[in-house]
Amino acid sequence: MNNIILCGGSGTRLWPLSRTMLPKQFVKIFGEKSLFQMTEERNRRLCSSSLIVCNAEQFFLASDQLEESSKAVFLLEPIGRNTAPAIALACMLLEPEEIVLVTASDHLIKKQSAYEEAVKTAENLARQDYLVTFGITPDYPETGYGYIEADGADVLRFKEKPAMEKAERYMHANAKLAAKNLPAKYLWNSGMFCFKAGVFLDELKKYSPAIFETSAAALNNKVTVQERQYRIKHEDMLAIPADSIDYAVMEKSDRVKVVPCDIGWSDLGSFDSLYAETEAGENGNSVIAYSEGSPELVCVDSTDNLVISSERQIALVDIEGLLVVDTSDALLISKKGSSQKVKAVTEAIKKLKPELTETHRFVHRPWGTYEVLLESSRYKIKRIVVKTGRKLSLQKHFHRSEHWVVVSGTATVTVGDKRFYVHPNESTYIPAGQVHRLENEGKVDLAMIEVQVGEYVGEDDIVRIDDIYGR
Amino acid sequence: MNNIILCGGSGTRLWPLSRTMLPKQFVKIFGEKSLFQMTEERNRRLCSSSLIVCNAEQFFLASDQLEESSKAVFLLEPIGRNTAPAIALACMLLEPEEIVLVTASDHLIKKQSAYEEAVKTAENLARQDYLVTFGITPDYPETGYGYIEADGADVLRFKEKPAMEKAERYMHANAKLAAKNLPAKYLWNSGMFCFKAGVFLDELKKYSPAIFETSAAALNNKVTVQERQYRIKHEDMLAIPADSIDYAVMEKSDRVKVVPCDIGWSDLGSFDSLYAETEAGENGNSVIAYSEGSPELVCVDSTDNLVISSERQIALVDIEGLLVVDTSDALLISKKGSSQKVKAVTEAIKKLKPELTETHRFVHRPWGTYEVLLESSRYKIKRIVVKTGRKLSLQKHFHRSEHWVVVSGTATVTVGDKRFYVHPNESTYIPAGQVHRLENEGKVDLAMIEVQVGEYVGEDDIVRIDDIYGR
């Protein structure tokens, strides 16, 4: 089996934890591993290969989170066109008889063995040329998910996100059946699928021929960036109609089957659903400390809160039922149960300070990471980490000079015609206008502090003369 | 008249805005001026001189907030012994016939002309050898203040902080009198006083002779640090019994009078009282942005909150009646009306991370300020500002080297035998073990970035060879 991992996501629902440039699948919410890494690992046990469909800008984020030995294939989209085109493009890279397991990259699945069992059931159905979807037995009347009305493995119909009353009716119907030891009739549509690549493409061609044709043309015209890495061209992607796999194929095809399952699934689509998956500590307060050395939460007469903290000390006094999400440049405080409204927050902030919806102060780059420590109109301080073997572009700046102090690792620095090493506790200076390059030829990460000084210190004052990442 | 300004304060009630090393009188809560500056300015119109009693560690904080032309006299206490000794020591610096106006440094007084009138009334009574206290006409049944039971200018008795029921009875009694156009009987004890220095000392000698004797000895043994700056020795201060002026003198003396007044007074003793003094914006949300360029608060369906913000973007969703206090290293979220419990928070944090109750990341020093931008086990980044004409100690470090990049102003740097200038966009390097000094001989502030690198970067790795501030 081939695992297609869909890595889209706009990074708005878990803002400020997630941002456009760091959607939630790449955030290490549950400790050492990101949801993307957990997904890849979970499916590695079931699939012999994986095909990752992600935004071109996030390729390095995703590939840096994979093990070095990974043979995953990347399909890079310049823009997102929803799930139907993403899955179609991926299937077109495969042989028609190959079976694919399509999964999101940002869902949580807690019951691994039930999951594996469900996938095996789905795989069997897929071999019989069915398009298989996974239906999650609901725990509660969620109104944020679509439902599948099922009769065993047969799909009677797909149901839109219901109002609360209807969702409760579904739960009631399920409960009645459960009392008779019968399987649930109303299932959550999980967005996971299993089918033969060719069968899916045939059905897509039949029911949404425009998506099929434009996707085929786009794939045909793809750019091979390097081994196992393909990029769709922007204009080709634009030509593909955006649609979800549910609308484009599943709701229309008569080859659809469902595997009802209870696999401890959550789409973590809001802080409330994240809260539901977090173990409560003392007095019902949950803490997710996503940076090392987060100080202990101080609670005075406070209960039933979810606090996501970074370096800052947080103290609560007489607080009940709040979600507190603290990052280095933005703080969200929401009542529990209201986290769907976070969307209104990101919309407001897009107008006020759009950069806060796009990046963190800690930024991933193809060559490593940087963090802005201080920014003023005439200088900027960054901590820069260059991974072993990586190099920044050969570049120059019109308006700023740069002072570099190496704190660990060894920098190979090019300035004009000269090329030299800078060791820990040594520094160098790059005058404005001078062509320069920073490399890490060493075996350990290079960490350095950069002090930029100049009349303008914006990120866009950069002229790239050469770049191994094609920027 | 001589204004004695009491500058004690432990910096715990408005934590994390205030800290031990930056009590609330020095925080610029209401914009450009601190409460200390507002106090000094307010009384400069009434008094010909001022005498500031403050902790020795905070001398530079206070003197930096005064105008350069200020002729204020400083009396520095190594430790606090409450108000009676502080006022006694100050009075002993003056002639017995001099009239003093004793004020806190961290109270808010909004009605300046009513205040001036009240002070003039008090001054007249003080000339007649009375000890005069100021009684504030209460607006509401506050349980956090002591009360004065008055009959016109006569004090019938001092009342401890009342329970709510009793506080309400006081209000009721006042209302009845007000209906008959009679003055209030129960007044808040404001902690402001007016009397002849000699009269106060006579009464202190009579009712609390131990305080009088030990204070006289301590003052006699004082150190003259420089012109208009006296320091009490630690052992002398320790010998003085700690007591408030109310217990030590006012509640015992029969020379006490009260000036009832309505001067828009608040002691700002909690975030709730701060909230009461803050103008509410849209939907009852108040914002105090205490650092420049604070982003606009984003509110979704949120009402009646007080947000004290610094650089971080803050967003509220479905939040009502909260106090949110955000600083660069600590965040407090409290229900409105519960801010008295902040004390429990600071007690907990004293055990967990005591440095957070002592200093901010932004630290005041005799020579200027510094801010820690990043700290790890092997390096530390600081932004350092040296005020014009100031210099750091001649010093060395065993474990760390320092890289200095000047971003504005000019540094005069001594390293070993050499002395040289470092201009903006220039850098220099101080190897570990090397004796060095940083000075600003220029006419504008010097700002520079320091990158410390070494096996240990704690503040205590410093050997001072010479220091103009006697450290």
From TrEMBL, chains A, B:
Gene3D superfamilies: Jelly Rolls (2.60.120.10), Spore Coat Polysaccharide Biosynthesis Protein SpsA, Chain A (3.90.550.10). Residues 356-467 form the Mannose-6-phosphate isomerase type II C-terminal domain. It comes from the Bacteria. One of its GO terms (biological process) is GDP-mannose biosynthetic process. The keyword Magnesium does not apply. Residues 296-347 form the MannoseP isomerase/GMP-like beta-helix domain. Its EC number is 2.7.7.13. InterPro entries: GMPP_N, Man1P_GuaTrfase/Man6P_Isoase, Man6P_isomerase-2_C, ManC/GMP-like_b-helix, Mannose-6P_isomerase_type2, NTP_transferase_dom, Nucleotide-diphossugar_trans, RmlC-like_jellyroll. Keywords: GTP-binding, Isomerase, Nucleotide-binding, Nucleotidyltransferase, Transferase. The keyword Nucleotidyltransferase applies. One of its GO terms (molecular function) is isomerase activity. It is an enzyme of class 2 (transferase). It catalyses: alpha-D-mannose 1-phosphate + GTP + H(+) = GDP-alpha-D-mannose + diphosphate. Coiled coil: none annotated. SUPFAM superfamilies: Nucleotide-diphospho-sugar transferases, RmlC-like cupins. Belongs to the mannose-6-phosphate isomerase type 2 family. This is mannose-1-phosphate guanylyltransferase. It comes from Geovibrio thiophilus. The lineage of its organism: Bacteria, Pseudomonadati, Deferribacterota, Deferribacteres, Deferribacterales.
